[in-house]
Write a structure and sequence with these properties.
This protein is an alpha+beta fold. It has two domains: about 160 residues, PvuII Endonuclease, Chain A (3-Layer(aba) Sandwich); about 70 residues, Arc Repressor Mutant, subunit A (Orthogonal Bundle), CATH 1.10.10. The strands form three sheets. A seven-stranded mixed sheet has the order 1-2-3-5-6-9-10. A three-stranded antiparallel sheet has the order 4-8-7. Helix 4 crosses helix 7. It is globular, with a radius of gyration of 20 Å. About 25% of the residues are buried.
Amino acid sequence: MSDTPLYLGFEEAPTPFKGPTQKARIWTEHWVKARLFCPNCGASNINQFAGNRPVADFHCAACHEEYELKSQKGRFGPRVNDGAFRTMCERVTAANNPSLILMNYDPIRLSVTNLFFVPKHFFVREIIQERKPLAATARRAGWIGCNILLGEIPDAGKIFLVRNGEQTSKSLVLDQWAATRFLRDQGERGRSWLMEVMKCVDLIGRRDFTLDDVYAQEARLHALYPGNRNVRPKIRQQLQVLRDQGYIEFLGNGQYRLR
């Protein structure tokens, strides 16, 4: 496994487009194909699909992981525009649901400034937001798109390779990806609950925390799952799963530590 730093600059590949946004799309795609490794298995490169696929843009020939690339100049906010709502909802539970590659670039220096991954096991129906249908006057009248709610994904589901131009090692990215792969073995409902408890831990804001710290967010969880009348036992159950999977450590007497 190599931790050799990536070259973050774009090669100005020939493009038939004149607009800066269209040129940037070509250059960012070319950079991913030429420079980026697979964060799921560590293979040294990923391949680009032929155009016009409904969701995925890239795939790894070694492990068959699929990826969707989103790139823009400014930082990503709590929502990211995506494709057709129905297609995304169908893909959430599919084995080939793509993981996300989110890239920010500098249009002057023509280089990557931020890049992080969202593994597919963090995708549940709750983070896919339906948008309003396009107006009757639009070219695709009635078409319904979606947003991906990045703000609803736990911190562990946003794995940075490049942050403000500074790179993280490949080995750390692979370790962080592997640390949450256990979510793939959970059903969608199980993943949803685990992610919410992971977000509770994020909101506490400390590596060491207590069971009471998580209980303090009981009202938020009850609002999310109004049909569940046993939120505290459910919290304890999810903490046990996270402990068994090595995501957190149980220190005894209601004390936990985030690993």
